[in-house]
TrEMBL record:
GO molecular function: protein-disulfide reductase activity
Organism: Sclerurus mexicanus
SUPFAM superfamilies recorded: Thioredoxin-like (SSF52833)
UniProt protein name: Thioredoxin, mitochondrial
Family the entry assigns: Belongs to the thioredoxin family.
Amino acid sequence: MAQRLALRRLLLLTPRAPPGSAFGTSAGRGSTFNVQDGSDFQDRVVNSPKPVVVDFHAQWCGPCKILGPRLEKMVAKQEGKVVMAKVDIDDHTDLAIEYEVSAVPTVLAMKNGDVVDKFVGIKDEDQLEAFLKKLIGA
């Protein structure tokens, strides 16, 4: 309990991330979330009524730091038609294994609990837009 309070105080004292950073933006708030555990993944991704983009990443991954904010920005532009789940593979190795993630960044497109598309590596904004439009059927 004391650790949780200390962490909460630290988070309150920590400066907010600048717009466009990997930690979320006001534009992306609500459309992007960090997966907490397997149960959270099941509830918010597999059982989601909306299509979900799942970003498997790692803190130590340079390309992930480039793709993450770019992908968040593109998801936010979809105005709620799709949500984005971020999964740190070091924290959630079980999910990475279950979804056969062998390199990061790996991005899955999920609809009704099924993987319908995926890519590995960095994509430019045009490629991301095409990936998202295919997912939401636009």
